[in-house]
Amino acid sequence: MKFLIKYGKNLNLMHRATLPVIFIIYVTLFFLVLSPMKEGKIPVFDFSLFIMILIFWISFFILRKNIFDPLLMVLKERDDFVKKREEIYEKAMALMKKNQEEYDREIQHFREKERQKFFQFSKELKEKQNQELGNFKKELEEKMKVSLKNIQKEKEEAKNLIEKNVIAYSKKLAQRILKKDVA
């Protein structure tokens, strides 16, 4: 029995099914042949038992050839099919993962490129803004210089005019204050 347990695991399904049958046959022979011999009786050998065993083995081999082997073949083909599908699935998952990583890399590259374009645009915009601000300051300074020159010129003219007419203006002012004619 230990032999059957120990080596039965390594045998295929068909042999696993036949081992208990063989064990039952040996037990039956023991009770029918060897047990009466121990008691001192002469065993009666019945040919019907031999015929039953022969019919059993013939039917077993017929069933094995026509049912068990095709069934095992179908199961083996199914297992092979499942294994192939699992391999295809694993390859598809690996390919999908690879494509996802490639897609993520492209997105990251695109984002980095857009970020660089944005920084470049910001830099150019600031430079342009600083340039325009500088130009505006220069124009404003030039206009202020021109305005200051004009104011200075008008101031000089007014000063000269006042210096020329200071006496006449003083008389007018005195007349207004005193309300008399001043000579």
Description:
There is one protein chain. The protein has one domain. Helices cover 90% and strands 0% of the residues. The chain has 3 helices and no strands. It has helices spanning 2-8, 13-38, 47-178. The longest helix is centred in the middle third of the chain and has 132 residues, at 47-178. 0% of the residues are buried.
Task: Give a quick precis of the structure.
The chain is mostly helical and 183 residues long.
Low confidence ranges? 1-11
- In round numbers, the mean pLDDT is 81
Number of strands: 0
Order of helices and strands: HHH
Beginning-to-end CA distance, first to last residue: 160 Å
Question: What integer value in Å does the Rg equal?
Answer: 60 Å
Features:
disordered N terminus; 0% strand; mainly alpha; 183 residues
Reconstruct the topology from this structure:
Elements lengths: L1 H7 L4 H26 L8 H132 L5
